[in-house]
Amino acid sequence: MTAVEVTDLRKEFFRREGRWRRRRVPALRGITFTIERGECVAVLGANGSGKSTLVRLLATLLLHDGGSAHVFGHDVFADPRAVRRLVNRVSVEASFFKKMSSTENLSYSARFYGMTHSETSTRIPEILERVGFPVERRGEAMEALSRGMQQKVALARALLTAPVLLLLDEPTTGLDPRSKLEVQEFIREVRQIHDATILLCTHDLDEAESLADRIGILDRGELIALGTADELKGRYEAETLEEAFFSATGRALVEGEEEEEE
Amino acid sequence: MRGAAATLRGELIGLAGVVERNVYLIRRYLWWEIAFFVWTVANTLTIVFIAKGIEAAGGKIDVDRTTTILLIGAVIWAYLGIIFEILTETVAWERWEGTIEYTFMAPLARPVHLAGMGIFAVVYGVVRAVVLFGIVAALFDLQLPQANFSSAVVVLAIASVSFVGIGMMTAVLPLISPEKGVQLGFIAQGVLLVVSGVYYPVDVLPGWMQALAVISPATYALDGIRAAILDGAGLGAVWHDIWPLAVIGAIAVPLGLEVFRRGERYAKRHGKLKRSG
Question: Which pTM does this prediction carry?
Answer without folding.
Answer: 0.90
